[in-house]
Structure of PEBP family protein:
Amino acid sequence: MASASEEFRLVSPGFDHAGRFPRKYTIEGQGAAKNLSPPLEWYNLPEGTKSLALVVQYIDAPDPGSPIVPWVVWVVADIPPTLTGLPEGVSGKCEELGGDYSQIREGKNDDKVIGWRVPKLPSPGHRLEFRLFALDANLNLGNKPTKDKLLEAVESHNLAEAVLIAKF
């Protein structure tokens, strides 16, 4: 069994020590510091990792018809294992960054747009769940992967999963 220091893990230097994320990562940010995807870093990829995939959901999203319905914030597939993280504001800029970033495919969120989008959060304490999957293959889901297609494909290729919970 791997020790905690060898465990596949996901962190964000953009969140404070208590895991709270600033408004600039939401629709409530100001000007250019609005709806930025947060910086992410991962450590200890499992041996045999060929690609990574990421699903970010607002897990406390209220719905009048249900108690809680997770809201898809970001779907990312085909992240090369040569990358050790994603810089702040990378969403929507992978092509222009070039290199390994150009292999990344962003999918539609629940606002029906490609890329990172956090809805208006009603009050502090709401949570975002970041799930990063280390995969033994490239998923090749096309240019606009959906959460459902990604999670279905991940089932047969998942080597490990790292979860990060952030609070607003």
